[in-house]
Amino acid sequence: MRDRYAEIQALDAEVVVIGTGDIRYARAFAEQDRIPFPVLVDDEARAAAAAGVESVGLARLLALPSLPATARALRAGFRIGRPGKRVNQLGATFVVSPAPERLLYQHYDAHPADHAPMNAIFDALRRSESGA
Question: Is the CATH number 3.40.30.10 carried by domain 2-130?
Answer without folding.
Answer: yes
